[in-house]
Amino acid sequence: MAVSDLAQTSKAELSVRGGRVDAARLSMLALVAILLLAPLLAGGFLLYSLSLCFANALAVLSVSMLVRYGGEVSIGHSFFVALGAYAVAIVEHRLGLSIVVSLPLAILLGAGAGFVFAFPSRRLSGIYLAVATMALALALPEILIGFEKFTGGFEGLYIAQDLIPGIPKALQRYYVALGVLVIVCLALAHFRKSAQGLALLMAQAQPRAAEAMGITRSWARISIFTLSAALASLAGALTGFASSTVSPNSFTFFSGVFLLVGSVVSLNRLSLPAALVGGAFITLVPTYLAQAGDWVPILYGVALVVVTLVANAGDLRRFLPRGRGR
Amino acid sequence: MMEAGTSEGLVAEGISLAFGGLHVLNDVSLTLRPGVITGLIGPNGAGKTSLFNCLTGLYHGQRGRSSFAGTLLNGLGPAQRAACGITRSFQNLAMCPDLSLLENVLVGLTLKRRSGWFSAFVPTPALRAEQKEVERRAMAALSELGIASAAHDKPSDLPPGTLRLAEIARAIVCEPRAILLDEPAAGLNAVETRDLMRALKRLMRPDLVLLVVEHDMDLIMELCEQIYVLNFGQMIASGTPAEIRAHPDVIRVYLGDDADD
Known about the structure:
The complex is a heterodimer.
Chain A: H1 2-41, H2 44-70, H3 77-95, H4 99-118, H5 126-146, H6 148-151, E1 157-158, H7 169-193, H8 195-205, H9 207-212, H10 217-243, E2 245-246, H11 253-265, H12 272-289, H13 296-310, H14 314-319
Antiparallel strand pairs in A: 1-2
Helix pairs in contact in A: 1-7, 2-7, 2-10, 2-11, 2-12, 3-4, 3-5, 3-10, 4-10, 5-11, 7-10, 11-12, 11-13
Chain B: H1 2-7, E1 10-19, E2 22-32, E3 37-41, H2 48-56, E4 63-68, E5 71-72, H3 78-83, E6 86-88, H4 101-107, H5 117-121, H6 125-144, H7 160-172, E7 178-182, H8 190-203, E8 209-213, H9 217-223, E9 226-231, E10 234-239, H10 241-246, H11 248-260
Parallel strand pairs in B: 3-8, 3-9, 6-7, 7-8
Antiparallel strand pairs in B: 1-2, 1-4, 4-5, 9-10
Helix pairs in contact in B: 4-6, 4-7, 6-7, 7-8
């Protein structure tokens, strides 16, 4: 009796799920179509801002991915973003190659740096890991200025090379950033169903059970941090490409904090609309905040305190709508 | 006689475990033979879960040795023992709330999956074939326990009885050679307990080691062919249900207490 009841409810729910999936897919296609056609209507500054927004959305996704799959918070992801951005600039200046080469290189460098950071800190979690990542964010400006010969010091570097010569620069920036963002969102949706994605979610929710199924905690910590850093570095490469310039000003300690705030604003979700909300937030708000002058560090500080209090990963998840697990 | 025991099944010899000055297990030995449902009982605080955790590699005894099918287990952690074919369930339901029941069971197949990091992000035909195959196996495991109809539900929407069975489905899906169940009937009502018992009997194969840790004497008596009784960290009796029922020490420390209630 109970079993047949169950069968009926689950069948009913299945058809509801099917309907919801179709609606979600259609609205996603509509959103992508609108974004694809936007350059016909918008131009100049708006197009530039949107391109930056896409790149920033990717950076927000990298932090959200760490929160979702690792249950961890990073304040220092601006380090990996900067790594990708400078990789593009330096490859162009030193080797004269475009992002065809530097984009994959940025991913590899990000993954490598993420691994190098994650391995010694694989036993850290929660606030301890967050503080360790803070060291990255604090060291970053010093590194950028210290290695002036490569990084151009305070002035930074320009990125001038096109991906496809002949197409207007504004359109290139826009479509490359949008294309990568859509591909990454699709890849993340696929990842949720993959063996590794399921294993990471289990390791986060039930570490002991995961261990009993052969999924060790250090494997989970190192993998998710490496992946997230690779994605942050890819985001950085696109930030550099979309803004045509890299300088230490774009990668201060507060940009790391702001990435985390952007991730919270997008509810740590890994979907395209959520990423766009987070990306728009961290693209636009600093522009308005700039008018606040001396208040900026205080506002950032308040944001940081709020995020660390509320967003201690596990706690944050309680505020998320239940249901679809991403 | 001992030799046959050490090359087959899961064997623990002379296990002692202490936390600081607190001696939890004292020179405990047991042999879990394949094809036999073995029960481990004892009153609360007897050390059942400690012994269980020693067998699964969560704790490491200060003394003693344990081996499985002739392989020495000393020093191996839970993940490495899982790789040896030993799986376990948890007293507190250990389901991931974000995953459906089917996905929770799929995680049990992690060690058997061959798909690499590339196919975690990019769909490939090989991956699709693998996905189909593992889902078929997970569904088969759920069907075997009679809960296939709940496959797509979230754990938070399901009663504890179903989740308990799902934990066992997750433990058997990778076709382990040993299954260790920690209080599988905890929190279940009489009907659910009966379902569970039937499911466990159905699972039994001649090459499978199956250990059930319980404080429910009736369940153990009905289910198991071989029973060990633990009290204050010491193994006070072992034998068939009839032998345990008649054992004077068991009656005193366990059944005696029970009869008074």
